Amino acid sequence: MTLAVQDAGAADDETSGARAKRPVLHAYLDIAIVVVVLAATNLIAHFTTAWASIATVPIAAVVLLMLTRRRGLGWAELGLSPRHWRKGSLYALAAMGLVIGVVAIGAALPITRPFFMADRYATISGALIASMIVIPLQTVIPEELAFRGVLHGTLDRVYGARGVFAAGSLMFGLWHIASSLGLTSGNKGLSSFLGGGVLGQVLGILAAVVATAAAGIVFTWLRRRSGSLIAPIALHWSLNGAGALAAAVVWHTTMA
What we know:
Blueprint: H1 2-47, H2 50-70, H3 85-108, H4 124-175, H5 188-194, H6 197-226, H7 230-255
Helix pairs in contact: 1-2, 1-4, 2-4, 3-6, 3-7, 4-6, 4-7, 6-7
């Protein structure tokens, strides 16, 4: 009887151990799926058709959100829980006010004005469309859903805060390699500062990766502090959208 009881206990331990390993394996699989989808999305968006560059990232963000919900991530893990909306909004207002103030100062100072002279924002109408429609719908909201929502939630289950800050921010920096190709050639301030040619392009890409990885750290901090995607979305838009509007103003006043 004793041996039978011991054998039964050992079998139960093995079964419970196998069950305990399944969630861990599923969590690693979730991370792998998210990373692969993000990498494929980036390549399709930047190296295929014009329509793909418009629609791929928003579609991928929604697909990843639906997929991870089915895999068991809760709304709070994704930064979308209604109970954090108020706190997220307060952090969002503070972040937007700070960034818009810094952007305004940068656009006004002669030493930093050239860095705002990006060719794609040379007109007021173009900058308005970009900042109010294209940037939030095509870039800011999808990227925050994908990185500070889905990737954040999957990484946090396995690696905790340190893993989210390190791996999530690094991936956000690498995500911007493709979009930074030719960055220096379209910005007068950067081209004069980093130089032209291949070396200037490489330096521009490295600078973009470092800058966006650093921004990813700040976005992640806001996401964790507020518990909501509202705050990083607001900060992300402030950097891109307010920057586009400031660029148009600089172009308009410089060429007037």
